[in-house]
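In this section we walk through a basic example: taking a raw amino acid sequence and producing a predicted 3D structure, encoded as discrete structure tokens. The instruction is simple. Fold the sequence below.
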Amino acid sequence: MPDLTYEQHFSGLVAGIDEAGRGPLAGPVVAAAVILSAGPLPIGLNDSKKLSPARRTTLAAEIRRHHRFGIGQASVAEIDALNILNATYLAMRRALAALGTPVPMAVLVDGNRDPKLGVTTQLIIGGDGLSASIAAASIIAKVTRDQILADMAQECPGYGFERHKGYGTADHLAALARLGPTAHHRRSFAPVTRLLRSTPAEISDTSTPTGKISVKVMAVR
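The resulting token sequence is shown next.
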């Protein structure tokens, strides 16, 4: 289970940062930064991917009540303009800025690439399962983005955003082939790009086993 081992390497405030939504074909990428308050950690705190939706929601509410957090997003337009990696870094910078003051002396980031946040940064591979503050950030980012996708499902019925959260699942790809991309789809992502370049006849064929467009089916985390 995540703990405060990494946080305790520093003498001042430390924020954990994580993101949700790098892989989906639709919707923004969302990042969160969390500074855990002194005292016991939230019971059951863990990597968001290892928690049920109900448990994530409960923990997110507790984190919001008792700990400092900031949320940042990068839009679909920004993802398409900057690429997903740079858009993720932008969302992280916005999340860190949203924490307000006092600013943390260091940040812990899940992953192995430095997002260049302008403060001392420690990269931790698998950090959402090791660092309590990164785990908390992963929960806030995931719950926030899931709600955005649930709202998108109301705006764009028929795509199933509330189920697959924008990932390239079989039912999402079938809906794309049937209905075409929405304004929320990432034009720079290959399955969407291929659909936009196809003729209407080709698009209609992609929902069949012999369709002309090959796509990669993604699991929803």
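Looking at the output, two observations stand out. The CA atoms of residues 20 and 30 lie 5 Å apart. The chain has a mean pLDDT of 90. In the next section we compare this with other chains.
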